[in-house]
Amino acid sequence: MLTQKCILVFLNTSEIAKLYTLNKEHHTKLSENHEIKKSIWRGDLPEASRKHFWKQCCKINKVKTEVRGILNYTDNASNIYSYIQNQAEEDPKFYTVKNDISKDLPRTYLVANSQIDKSQLSKILIALAYVKPHIGYCQGLNFIAAIILKVVQNEEDAFYALLGIIKSWNLENMFVSGVPDLTLREYQVSYYFKTMIPDLYAHFRRINFSNGFFISRCILTIFSADLPFDTLVKIWDCIFIGNWKVIVRTECAILRELKPIFLDLNLEEISIYLRNNVRENHYDYKSLLASAKSFKISLKELKYIEDDFYKVQSSLKIDSDNQTYSENEDLVKDINESEGGELDQVKQDIARFQEKIKKIDEDYETVQQHYLSVSMEMQYVEKDIASLSEKKIAYLRIYKDMENKYKQSQNGISKYVPDIMSKIFFSKNEISEADEIKLADMKKYYEKMKIIEKELEELKILQREKFSIYQDAYSRLEDIKEKKLRYSEQLCNYLLKCKQSSEISVNP
């Protein structure tokens, strides 16, 4: 029946989505059909169908079987998720993981106001750390898991869906120690950023703004920290049918949408804007989806960029004549296996070069982890500032409304005390009991605004400090890269000289 594509014309998105989740045959047929994809790209998938659609895309039943295999759990009668929770609770090595998770829960906006949601999210993240100890817990996972929990609305299913997303979206190496894939993903997005939005890219370079900061925070949370929930879930619907290339498209669409604003801002102003306004600018999900879809990005091209990335990485280990690192390794091995007193100094020099490069690699991983940690800390401070700013605006609106009503009720009396704040704090003359209550309420909101203003000022100072640390970490990363390249080139040149020297015999 589904092979007759014309039948789909008579179905709406919700009905097609239900067919998509029925069984493997329907799933395969509809995955190959463009109608469901077009509909999802329009943002037509209804909220009522999303939970089942996501669960089907995450293949949670298959994930459950895989988890049993990973843990070698053979008791089919018991609930493996409960088993994981019990094991993690009793294992003392999860104390640090639990502590890290508990610090991030209040900062995860979707669950921050619900103790039940926070508890469920904590259990999901702890279970993930138990099943995948090489990942443990990484900042960013809290936002992703919170979105899944909000949509799936079941703690256990959300856990399996999280595992399914990590696998199907190829995110595992984004969250393991050292986040090895993050640099690759930044490189891919930067390629399209540079080629498709060159004027904004050039502007970022002129003002010394690191596009890597904005790109990495979007990637690590799959936009869940930067887009409003209603827009985000529609983007995720598209990611389920398009995987990584949809993430790249969306990142570019957001940058293009912000371009008219950013081109008129300096470094500090862009930082403030990202801190306060990003999520509020994307309520028009249809516009964002249309913009993202307009970017022509293919998996073949992404693979080409990935290959180019690894070529660039390997260039740190080759000389100016493009001698490969493996060839240099062979040359080092030949020299070290050679005999003769005159070779001792050469071997010692090579060992020193190699030790320096090894130390640089270790330093790079350490600094990179620090850089990512500072980036996330900046994000948390920025969100706190955004939250307080919203609260201040709300209090100011209430205060102004009360002030206007008070002025209207005073009629002729207000002309004697034109400054209402002076009346609130200093004047007790000609004030009725009703007026005193109104003025007391106004004073309460006025004082709340002052407290918030003080907190905002303190947070802005903290944000400036964090940004300074972030810039320092970024500079250190670049310095380490340059140092490694310099040492690698020196070693290559030294090896070439050794090879060409008539005083040293190198085995072919």
TrEMBL record:
Pfam families: RabGAP-TBC. Keywords: Coiled coil. It comes from the Eukaryota. Residues 44-243 form the Rab-GAP TBC domain. GO terms for molecular function: GTPase activator activity; small GTPase binding. Residues 336-370, 442-490 form a coiled coil. InterPro entries: Rab-GAP-TBC_dom, Rab-GAP_TBC_sf, Rab_GAP_TBC_domain. Gene3D superfamilies: putative rabgap domain of human tbc1 domain family member 14 like domains, Ypt/Rab-GAP domain of gyp1p, domain 3. PANTHER family: GTPASE ACTIVATING PROTEIN AND CENTROSOME-ASSOCIATED, ISOFORM B, RAB GTPASE-ACTIVATING PROTEIN 1-LIKE. This is Rab-GAP TBC domain-containing protein.
